[in-house]
Design brief:
The protein is an alpha/beta fold. The chain has two domains: about 190 residues, Isopropylmalate Dehydrogenase, CATH 3.40.718.10; about 130 residues, Isopropylmalate Dehydrogenase, CATH 3.40.718. Helices cover about 40% and strands about 20% of the residues. The strands form two sheets. It has a ten-stranded mixed β-sheet with strand order 2-1-3-12-11-4-5-10-8-9, sandwiched between helices. A two-stranded antiparallel sheet has the order 6-7. α5 packs across α6, α7 packs parallel to α8 and α10 packs across α11. The chain is globular. It starts with a strand and ends with a helix. The chain binds 1,4-dihydronicotinamide adenine dinucleotide and magnesium ion. 1,4-dihydronicotinamide adenine dinucleotide binds next to loops.
């Protein structure tokens, strides 16, 4: 039996995930859904943001649907999501950016780089260690190459880096080039800062962009501009043995608790989960229903509408059931 963990987390995670969960349950009527409570609210209640039992449960699942967690800027508080990505070794963060005119995907290395978690925080000096390994660069490059081949858009694989200033990026860039060349794939190597602007100006010139952890984090939020905002962008966190699907956005405390968050990023994350389980047709049905809902302008305030989170979720599900 397929086992899916449902993690709502904090803030709008509690509002958008139930909408995505309904759609998963529609397509997976026989799956076992296991609700896992973790995040900042949980930390406030119990003193632990993610218990050992929670982590064990996540590891036993076929896939995880994840909302968002609040990470307070307290040096004593470690990001739960970083911990989960490390524990489950979810090394590839796949972030598609798709709209009528845009179709690209950011492949972000998800376990090392500047989010290594190796830090020394002091009064007068704080340091964070940026870790780049050949093995880590190779596996993310391989993932990006296979996506590039699968998508077949005849566009070179783009490597986003800053090897001129960050010498650790020479290893990342060169490993990516070696992997791509070994598969006869054309590559374009670009400085991440210039890339950030160019992808917004000319998204049509891009297909797969592979980059390190923090650059990918920033680049994918910026690409929200191409699709109508953060409420639209889904992502997959994939490892050899585990997979977790989540919207790119965070817990959005500024709009939480008002039933106005856009659930589309979460719904699309559920579609990516189904595709991961081999249910590509079902995933396509979800995307079609999202498109129909958008055309009907049943949208939340971030997209200029006045529909609620639940209205949008229920409309998408209704469209799916009609097909
Ligand atoms: P955020 O992504 O939560 O919000 C940024 C802005 O986008 C806010 O104005 C918010 O209202 C808007 N927004 C985000 N998602 C939306 C949606 N679905 N519909 C409509 N509007 C939406 O990022 P922010 O404000 O920097 O961080 C808030 C908290 O979330 C922090 O504690 C942060 O650490 C955490 N966070 C968690 C992430 C995760 O769990 N994967 C990712 C990013 C941030
Ligand atoms: Mg982010």
């Amino acid at each position: 039996m397929t086992k899916i963990a449902i993690v709502e987390g904090d803030g709008i995670g509690r509002e958008v995930i139930p909408e995505a969960e309904k759609i998963l349950r529609f397509f997976l009527p026989n799956a076992e859904f296991v609700k896992v409570e973790l995040g900042f609210d949980q930390w406030k209640k119990t003193g632990s943001a993610c218990s050992k039992e929670n982590m064990t449960t996540l590891k036993e699942m076929d896939a995880v649907l994840f909302g968002a967690v609040t990470t307070p800027p307290d040096p004593e508080y470690k990001s739960v999501l970083l911990e989960i990505r490390h524990e489950l070794d979810l090394y590839a963060n796949i972030r598609p950016v798709k709209s009528e005119s845009v179709d690209l995907v950011i492949v972000r290395e998800n376990t090392e780089g500047l989010y290594s978690g190796i830090e020394e925080i002091g009064e007068d000096k704080s340091t964070t260690l940026r870790v780049i390994t050949k093995a880590g660069s190779r596996r993310i490059a391989e993932k990006a190459c296979s996506l590039n081949i699968q998508r077949n858009q005849n566009t070179p694989l783009v490597i986003g880096h800053k090897a001129n200033v960050l010498k650790s990026d020479i290893l990342f860039r060169d490993t990516c080039i070696t992997v791509a060349e070994s598969q006869n794939l054309p590559v374009r190597s670009m400085f991440i800062d210039a890339l950030c602007l160019d992808v917004l100006l000319h998204p049509d010139r891009y297909d797969v962009i592979v980059t390190t952890n923090m650059f990918g984090d920033i680049l994918s939020d910026a690409c929200g501009y191409l699709t109508g905002g953060l409420g639209m962008l889904p992502s997959a966190n994939i490892g050899e043995n585990h997979a977790l699907f989540e919207p790119v956005h965070g817990s959005a405390p500024d709009i939480a608790g008002r039933n106005i968050a856009n659930p589309i990023a979460a719904v699309r994350s559920a579609a990516m989960l189904l595709e991961y389980l081999g249910m590509k047709t079902e995933a396509e049905k979800i995307e079609k229903a999202v498109q129909q809902t958008l055309s009907l302008r049943i949208v939340t305030p971030d997209l200029g509408g006045n529909a609620s989170t639940r209205d949008v979720g229920e409309n998408i599900l209704a469209k799916i059931s009609e097909h």
